[in-house]
Amino acid sequence: MGEIILVGTGHILERSVREVEEVIEREKPDIVAVELCPGRYEALKGNVGEFSVKEAIEGGKPFLMLTHWLLAYMQKRMGSELGIEPGAEMMAAIRKAESLGCEVALVDRPIQITMQRFWKRMKFTEKVKMLFSILFAIANLGSFSLGRVRKKELKDRVNREIDLERITDEDVVTKLIEELRAFSPGAATALLDERDAYIAGSLLELQGAHPTPAHTHNSSKKIVAVVGAGHVAGIKRLLSHPELIPPREELCSLPGGGHAGAGWLNLRNLLGVGLGVVLIALLLAVLFSGIPINTLLQALFWWFIINGSLSAMGVIVARGHPLSALTAFAVAWLTSLNPSLAAGWFAGLMEARLRKPSSEDAKGMLNVETLRDLMGNKVFKIILVAALANVGSVMGTFLGAYVVFHTVGLDINQIWAGLKALFNFNI
Question: Is pLDDT of 63 > 60?
Answer without folding.
Answer: yes
